[in-house]
Design a protein that fits this description.
single chain, 286 residues, alpha/beta, six-stranded parallel β-sheet, 19% strand, binds adenosine-5'-triphosphate, binds pantoate, binds beta-alanine
Length: 286
Amino acid sequence: MQTVSELDALRAAMAGLRRDGASIALVPTMGALHQGHLALVREAKQACDHVVASIFVNPTQFGANEDLDAYPRQLAEDSAMLEAEGVSLLWAPDVKAMYPEGFGTEVAVSKLTENFCGASRPGHFDGVATVVCKLFNQVMPDQAFFGEKDFQQLTVIRAMARDLDLSRPHASAIVGVPTVREPDGLAMSSRNRYLSPSDRERAATLPRAMREAIARIEEGADVTRALAALEDDLLSAGFDEVDYAELVDARTLEQLAALTSAPARLLVAARIGGTRLIDNMKVGAG
Ligand SMILES: Nc1ncnc2c1ncn2[C@@H]1O[C@H](COP(=O)(O)OP(=O)(O)OP(=O)(O)O)[C@@H](O)[C@H]1O
Ligand SMILES: CC(C)(CO)[C@@H](O)C(=O)[O-]
Ligand code: BAL
């Protein structure tokens, strides 16, 4: 596996990989890799001849009071994991290489970013859309792989790629990969390592309470009541705050007051200690 941290070197390496018409998959990450990231790499490897992974802790998607400085950075360990998975190229730019002096362009996706994580993390999705747009233009992959764990992010990236005619990858070449979970059901996340042992134990209530709420909704319970019970379950289990718990149309992220034939998803974000956890699950058969 080759590692590059400058754009010229990336372009030269990409030209080498593309020789003979080989197809390219991109797996964007912020590092601190776990099995969730490796699931993306494995799907990418099945789909294309070469996998290019990126590691970049993108400052523009962090709010002023968020964990940019504390975010785990472990390039040597991550690099060994990617190499073991057969990744061909690691793109690991520093902030100056990604945002050279004078950088002043932003990609903003409207509507889909208004609620949920977009409301509680103002500017977050502008940062995500801008850096992912740059990654697409830098690598020009045939397919790009993102986790369903960040469901709103996946929806926003699909919309951006469609709206901006990012022909490689075009919207249909963005692949969503199902969430990988710990044995107790907690969605894997780099931020889980912030949890104290007791908060880590309590955190498993999140997927459990979500499954219970989904069962109630699928049995025909009133959605507002089921979501209120979910919030109560989380607060009783020791969560400090429920940021949102909503049933949405999985395509438009519009809130649903009842289950319909539309594909539906339960989206939740909740804080335990200083750590904000997000999760989402499919609801119903739509
Ligand atoms: N448990 C998971 N299952 C599947 N994909 C995941 C999982 N966790 C993260 N991903 C995906 O990996 C990619 C990189 O995510 P990122 O590096 O932010 O990791 P993360 O664990 O989500 O970190 P964070 O704690 O910052 O949310 C994203 O597309 C994300 O959706
Ligand atoms: C897509 C991404 C790599 C953009 O920085 C990040 O938001 C992430 O890791 O999910
Ligand atoms: N995994 C999404 C990136 C973020 O929370 O900033």
